[in-house]
Amino acid sequence: MARCRPERPSLASLHVGWVYPPAPGGRPGRWLTIELQSVGKLNSPALIAAFEGWNDAGEAASGAIGHLIESWSASPAGEIDPEDYYDFQVTRPVMEVSDGKTERLVWPTTRIAVASPPAIGRDVLLVQGIEPNMRWRGFTAELVEAFEKLGVELVILLGALLADSPHTRPVPVSAAASDVALAAQLHVEPVDYKGPTGIVGVLQQACASAGLSAVSLWAAVPHYVAQPPSPKATLALLRHVEDVLDISVPLADLPAEARAWERGVDELAEQDAEVAEYVRTLEEAKDATDLPEASGDAIAREFERYLRRRGDRGEHGR
């Protein structure tokens, strides 16, 4: 006789999940799982997540997660079974072939990694995913349950959107917190928005409903240079992650890449008079709406980052 649930997993891994209601005709429900490898006891873990797709203009958000995974030498900690959440004709698996030999098949899914960055006093879980094609409520329910079992104290969700923003100015990053107290703690300005959302918005709401503190950070990518990569927007998101966690993130060559990206867009704009004029119009509109006090806040944040980096260099002898 078919069972509603598979055999319980071994102690080497932890499965979390929930059961679909029985299907019409009396067929048993399905037991959905995230498999989490044994990661030991985590120290005040924060979690940072980004998803490719609608939430990821210029691949700025996924670029930020990829940068953190590499910079912090994060180790795989688990992944979600993609079978019920992805349409493989839309998001296809990737075949890796080397010297005529099939090396491996990589299925599109959402993966969790864990890092213990030096000198920040806490562990960080990094979620690198693809926006699912279906069953978003089940997808977010599984993730939130995993976050709870891992003891996550703060969820930071990264996103990027296309906007009328000039590439020559600092990349605007808007933030939305799950509750008023968290917004005040993180000095997040209130955001007014009514419109469509992606998996980042759905996951933030699911975290809030479960009592998990969550904040989403959205970088505004200039719509006229939307093709990836967008290192300047990725850098802006990482700067705000630094502010939220009060840490210093290794940036490696990213600042230089952001400057090179801006110079490249400058050169392209100079070759087209209409584009150059449009950029000037955006610059004027941006400069007119930037309030002095907002600029003062930005200077204060930049000075705090400078002090953090100076402290890190002294601590590590760099």
Main beta sheet strand tally, sense and closure: 9 strands, mixed
Multimeric state: single chain
Strand content is: 15-25%
| Tally of helical segments | 8
Helical amount: 25-40%
Q: CATH topology, anyone?
A: Rossmann fold
Tell me the series of helices and strands, N- to C-terminal.
EEEHEEEEEHEEHHEHHHH
Spans of at least 5 consecutive residues with low confidence = 1-32
**What sort of overall outline do the alpha carbons produce when their principal axes are compared?**
globular
Q: Which structural category do the helix and sheet elements fall into?
A: alpha/beta
Whole-number average pLDDT? Answer: 83
Characterization of the model:
This protein has helices spanning 60-71, 136-149, 180-185, 199-209, 231-245, 254-270, 273-289, 292-316, and strands spanning 13-19, 31-37, 46-52, 75-80, 94-98, 101-106, 111-115, 124-130, 154-163, 173-177, 214-222. The protein has 318 residues and is of the alpha/beta class. The chain has one domain: PAC-like subunit (Rossmann fold, 3-Layer(aba) Sandwich). The chain has a nine-stranded mixed sheet with strand order 1-2-4-7-8-3-9-11-10, sandwiched between helices. The protein has a two-stranded antiparallel sheet with strand order 5-6. The longest helix is centred in the last third of the chain and has 25 residues, at 292-316.
